[in-house]
Amino acid sequence: MKNIIATVLFSILFSCTDNQVMQPYDKAQKRAEINVKGYSKPDAVQLRLNGSPVAINGNNSYADKIETQITFVLDEGETDELGIYNSQTGARIAKYDISYHNWEDYKNLYFFNLPDIFLKTYAVKPQVNLGKVGFEFIFPNLGEFSGSPLTHVKGVLKRENGVVLAEFDNIGKENFTAVKIYNFFSISAPVYLELYKPGTTEPYTGSGIIPVKIKQDIGANMIVIQEKTENGTVVVNGDIDIVGYL
Fold this sequence. Notes:
5% of the residues lie in helices and 49% in strands.
């Protein structure tokens, strides 16, 4: 009888077909903590984890300043999707694929959502003393139309007469530069940002300098630079100042 029982058990344990693979009962797991700091105006947004809304202070949609911590368990070999959606239209604005091995890349997740602009950064209005002008820049679509492979550019801010007001060594795609401050001199005179390859005096794209006309306001200015095309020619605009949203 013992031999018969042993034979039956042996048959059960090794009766898998060639296409079956025995899996371990328990998978390795990690606890993920994602710290979210965002801003959205005027549209409300919704965070969804694997399709399920994330509630913040009891609300499933939120606007203006958005801060929360999302905690969940990650299984090795699986991916969890964290998405940002427009609450009114349901359109997905951004998606983050978070796994057992990469979750720390998303430990601190920042975003700034405005009409037609989504920045993967958190914006804080800089402090600028009375009678001074401060500028910060970000270039989120660098290379989209110019084809430039650069991840950042050098910017030189000048008056119309060519006098240099400030230099920015690293204007990149994901974060605003540090603020540069100078004395306010005119409410009507524009200033121009010239863009170069880092560490050079060569235009960042093409053969000629592309001057970006920028309106200066007394106090803080946080300018989003954007590549666009006009009649087949690449141009760069700097007409969006997000300070008005903060």
